[in-house]
Amino acid sequence: TNKSYIQHVNGDHFAFAPSGTERLRIDSNGNVGIGTTTSIQKLTIDGGGVSIDNGWNAQWGANASRAYIQGEDATGNNRLILGTNNTERLRIASSGNVLINTSTVSGYSDRMLTVHKANDACYIEVRTDSDQQGGIIFSDGSAASAVSYPGYLAYNHTSDYMFFVTATSERMRIHSNGCVTKPANPAFFAKGTSSWIAIDSST
After folding, report:
1. The whole model's pTM is what?
2. In what order do the strands lie in the sheet with 24-27?
3. What are 55-72's pLDDT values in tens digits?
4. Residues 169 and 163 sit within 8 Å (Cβ to Cβ)
5. CB neighbours of 120 closer than 8 A, spacing ≥ 6?
6. Alpha helix segments (H runs only) across 64-152
7. What is the edge-to-edge ordering of all strands in the sheet holding 87-92?
8. Residue among 191, 193, 175, 195 at smallest CA distance from 183
9. What is the dihedral of CA 60, 125, 121, 177, to 10 degrees?
10. How far apart are CA 95 and CA 111, in angstroms?
11. From CA 27, how far away is CA 42, in angstroms rounded?
């Protein structure tokens, strides 16, 4: 029968071996390895996960300026929270809703993403290189085909225009000079608030 033991080798490390198999090692640098004999961090776990009871959290830094991850609380409120500077920044509620800078889920359950900034304007930024375009895409599938992504609005930085797509076809474009055009037949274009509107059905 394999016997449990604690091993100390030439001041190099401590090894803990229940039933004759090493399970945990503390090396000469103070690093702890579980399921491994090599740990390059303060704690390395190999071959399994970590399970923590209600009210768990992990934090980095002093309490006043800590960054932290917090899971289910002591009352069983099942959510995941990420914080920086000792302040909650992002929350995934038990319903799957994602909240940024707020802990309050919308009264409408279909609001899967809520972004908030107190006492100020709030924007969502899509950033690309100056020769690319960015936008928001609406899909009803996941296949790599236009049919699954029939609607979107985007901004082209190369030519500085915004365009709108429905049913996989561009329907309207706002150019850098303010002109609005509709590429499909019949075409139209408009400019200004009181100057002129032209309709062209010949194309």
Report:
1. 0.71
2. 5-9, 13-17, 24-27, 32-34, 43-45
3. 678 888 888 888 999 887
4. no
5. none
6. none
7. 57-60, 67-70, 80-84, 87-92, 98-100, 113-115
8. 175
9. 160
10. 11
11. 10
